[in-house]
Amino acid sequence: MKTKLLLILLLLTAKLNAQIPADAAARLNKIFDSLCTKYSIKGASAAMFVPGVGIWKSVHGISHANTPITENMILGLGSNTKTYIAVLMLQLQEEGKLSLDDTIGNWIKNVQHVNGKITIRQMLNHTSGLYSYTENMEWINEIFEDQRRVFRPDEILKYIQKPKFEPGKRWSYCNTNYLLAGMIIEKVTGKPLHIVLREKMLSPHGLHNTYLVPDEASTAPFAHPWTYIYDHSAPIVDIMVESETDINAFYSSAYAAGALFSTAEDNALFWHKLMAGLIISEKSLAELKQYIKIDATVGYGLGIFREKNFNGRTVYSHGGTGFGYVNENIADSTNGIVITVLTNQDSIGNGIILNTIIKALHKATQQNQTLGINKNTAAAELQISVYPNPSTGNCYVKLPEGFANNSSISVVNMLGQEMMFLNNVQAGNEIQELDLTHLEAGMYVIRIKNKDNINARKIQVIK
Known about the structure:
The protein is built from 14 helices and 22 strands. By secondary structure, it is an alpha+beta fold. The longest helix is centred in the C-terminal third of the chain and has 18 residues, at 350-367. The protein is globular and about 70 Å long. The two termini are 29 Å apart.
């Protein structure tokens, strides 16, 4: 019995860590390397999670002299941290410990230029009107005066100046919002922010290479950050070699607005689990995605951007820019594919990473049938019926007319584990019944495959 159980666990682990097909990986590697070379990126780490298929990882360039970037190195997430903090707030709301419509005056009192009537929601979606402390030159000068100084959150409050507008009047990106959000989380839970993150999100979801610095000591190596901040006309320099900077200390003033460090794989896994409804409930996820319109194609939810027409798809994302690090990532709302690219060079613009490198990688998934829904099979996809959805246990799959016989149907969970498989499925008017009663509640992907096409449908199982 123990041997059988061990075998099952080994099989599940193999599925979870499955790599995408070699031909697709080779194509992605070529795209990634060529674009990193074209834009002279010092070092980069990338990961792509494809539900039901596997994960692709790749690295390019160096961390520092004679030391290449490796997949286990952590890089600064910068403002990507905000998504984690917003999700943590939603977890606390699910537990009944706060409401996003609470005013922040319940926890934040007597802080200069902070209106206590601002709601948590207005902070998380950047409609609070608060002034961003990172725009204050006094803050900038002070952190550079002693690059080994560790700032505590309450020491940063003095850099807040007069608000830009009344709460709720418009949208304006502001790091102060998330500084205060982190402080509220500590007040509500009675624990330091890094411990709350570890207990509620990082450990439960296997994000063991993600750390909030300086409060957590990393067991993973840092990729050395390279910057042009000291002299924009000179070559970029390795901060950890050429200056007196202590990266852990330096990022202390970023706190909940941008102090997370992670690997590309960990960050991709976080975004995958988030969008699959595995970290917060479907209701909370819908709340996270409820956005304020910024322009014709871009909106901002709770610590998350929504962008229309990204290679013809709607994607969710949040990039980050920090001292020596720039990153971007997307989650495709159609097929659940997540792509993360982290770099150790702050002179690279976010636009190059998002609109050139990630867009090219994302486009490749649409052109490869094993990684996405091929546009040539879209008509057939629309004819595939999966019902009822949500399902309480049984569902039915009807294949379209003209769809080839001897197809296969598999049911895959959001970790990429195959939970059910049917072979030699016949097309035509045949309706295939799937017994899902053994599955736990959650989101799954039904994949219908024959010699020409792979089509996918999401289904929610409820109990």
